[in-house]
Amino acid sequence: xxxxxxxxxxxxxxxxxxxxxxxxxxxxxxxxxxxxxxxxxxxxxxxxxxxxxxxxxxxxxxxxxxxxxxxxxxxxxxxxxxxxxxxxxxxxxxxxxxxxxxxxxxxxxxxxxxxxxxxxxxxxxxxxxxxxxxxxxxxxxxxxxxxxxxxxxxxxxxxxxxxxxxxxxxxxxxxxxxxxxxxxxxxxxxxxxxxxxxxxxxxxxxxxxxxxxxxxxxxxxxxxxxxxxxxxxxxxxxxxxxxxxxxxxxxxxxxxxxxxxxxxxxxxxxxxxxxxxxxxxxxxxxxxxxxxxxxxxxxxxxxxxxxxxxxxxxxxxxxxxxxxxxxxxxxxxxxxxxxxxxxxxxxxxxxxxxxxxxxxxxxxxxxxxxxxxxxxxxxxxxxxxxxxxxxxxxxxxxxxxxxxxxxxxxxxxxxxxxxxxxxxxxxxxxxxxxxxxxxxxxxxxxxxxxxxxxxxxxxxxxxxxxxxxxxxxxxxxxxxxxxxxxxxxxxxxxxxxxxxxxxxxxxxxxxxxxxxxxxxxxxxxxxxxxxxxxxxxxxxxxxxxxxxxxxxxxxxxxxxx
Length: 561
Ligand SMILES: Nc1ncnc2c1ncn2[C@@H]1O[C@H](COP(=O)(O)OP(=O)(O)OP(=O)(O)O)[C@@H](O)[C@H]1O
Ligand SMILES: [Mg+2]
Description:
- It is a single chain.
- The mean pLDDT is 86.
- Helix 3 packs antiparallel against helix 4 (70-115) and helix 7 runs parallel beside helix 11.
- This protein starts with a helix and ends with a strand.
- Strand 9, helix 18 (515-526) and strand 10 form a beta-alpha-beta unit.
- Helices cover 63% and strands 11% of the residues.
- The longest helix has 53 residues, at 228-280.
- The chain has two domains: 2-327, ABC transporter type 1, transmembrane domain (ABC transporter transmembrane region fold, Up-down Bundle); 344-560, Rossmann fold (3-Layer(aba) Sandwich), CATH 3.40.50.
- It is an alpha/beta fold and 561 residues long.
- The site of adenosine-5'-triphosphate (ATP) has 12 residues, from helix 13.
C-alpha cells in the first residue's frame, strides 16, 4: 500500500513535470566548479589524515625502540600543520560558497516572483513566501554545498581507508564494512518518514512566521480590539505546534543515529579486543594496533556519518519541492513593448474576468478613446478594481480581446508590457518606507528636481510638504506611517503623474481627500496639455462633471453613458 502511494506521488510529480534532479542541477550549475573544488580539498584532507595515521604508527614504534629522529618529528609536525591549514581553508571556502549559493537561489526565486502572474503569487501568504525564500533556500544550499559533496567525500574516504586497512588487516577491513547494509536499510526506512516530517516542520514554520509578520504589520488592529493576550496565546500555540513536529523529527533522526553509533561502538570494542589479542600473541606491534584502530574508526565513521547526513538529504528534497511550488506559477505574458505616440485609447471586446471559477465580469465590451476622461462607477464589490486589473493585465481574460491604440496606428495587446505606458494609482495605501522623494522617484528614477516638484504640485502636495521639517526628504514608515491617509494618496498620485504616461488609471485615488483638495487636483489635472487619457474609479458624483464618459458596472456587465 505504502509503495503504491509512493509510486502515485512519483507519477503525480512526473505529470507536473517536476524533476527534482534537473531543478537542483539548474540552480547548482553556476557553483558546480566551486563545490567540486571544495570536494577535492576535502579528499586531499583524507590523504593527509591517512598519512597522519601512518606517521603516528611509525613514531610510536620508533619511541618503543627508543630512537626518534628529528626528521620523523618534523614530518609529523608538518602533517599536523597541513591538516590545520587545510581544515581552516575548507571552513572558509564553505562559508563563501554556501552564502553565494543561498543568495543565488533567493535571487532567482525573487526574480521569478516578480515576473510571475500576479494572481498566482497571491495564493501564497507573504510569510510563506519569505519562509520558502529564506529557510527552504538555505536548506537547499546547505544540502548541495555541504551534505551531498560530504556524502561523495565520505564514500571516497571509505574506499581509500578500506584499501589501506585491507592491506594491513583484511579481517578487520571486512568486519568494519558489516555496518554498510545495516546503515542502508535504516537510511531507507527512516528517510521517507523524515521527509514528511520535514515538510510538516516547514509548514509550521510558515504558519508561525506568517502570523508574526501579519500581526506586527497590523499591530494597531490588535491593540484596537484589545487582542494582545489572544494574539500572544495564539503565538504560543503556533510555537507549540512547531515544537511538536520539530521534536518528532529530531527524535526520529536521533534514534537512527543512536542505533548506528551503538553498533559502531560495539564494533570498535570488538576490533580492540581482536587487535589486543594479536599483540598478546606477538603478531603485531603497539604502533600497528594504533593504526588498525585509527583506520577501523575511519571506516566506520564515514558509514555512521553517511547515515547522519540523511536528514540533510531529506531536507534538500522537501525544501526543493516547496521552492518548486513557486516555480510552478505561470510567468506573466509579456509582448514586445510598443512605442505609443500622443494619447492612447483602449478597445475592450467581449472579455470576462474571474479569480476562480465564477466570472466577476462577463463578456464586457467598451471603447475608451484617446483623450477620454472616463469614470467607472458601481457598487462596492461589483468588479471595478477587477476591471482595472484586467486592463493592466494583472489578471487575464480567457476570451475576447483588449487592445490599446494611438492615433498613429500603433497597437498593443494586453500583456505586462502595456504597463510601460500606463500610470496607475491603486486603491489603498501603497507607499513604501523611505523618504517621500524615494516614493515619487519610483515613478521615474531619473527625474530631475524640477520634474519631482511639477508632479508634487499637480498632486497638490506642496502645502503640506512645506510644513514638514524635512520636506520632501521626510522619512515615512511602511504603508506611509507618519503622514495622513490623504497625504499618502496625493504622494501616490505624484508617483504616477511623474511618469507622464499617455494613459492614467486612478482607483479611488482621491477618496481620502476633502472636496476642495480633490477639486483642486482635478482642475490642475484637466489643464495638463496634452492631458493623458484617464480612467477613474469613484463613488463620488461630484467628480462626474469632469468626465466625458461613464462606465457603469452592474451584475457583471458594463454599460457606457
Ligand atoms: N484577489 C481576489 N481573489 C478572489 N476574489 C476576489 C479578489 N479580489 C476581488 N475579488 C472578488 O471580486 C469581486 C469584485 O471585487 P473588486 O475588488 O473588483 O470590487 P470593487 O468594485 O473594486 O469594490 P470596491 O468599490 O469595494 O473597491 C468581489 O466580489 C470580490 O470578492
Ligand atoms: Mg475596488
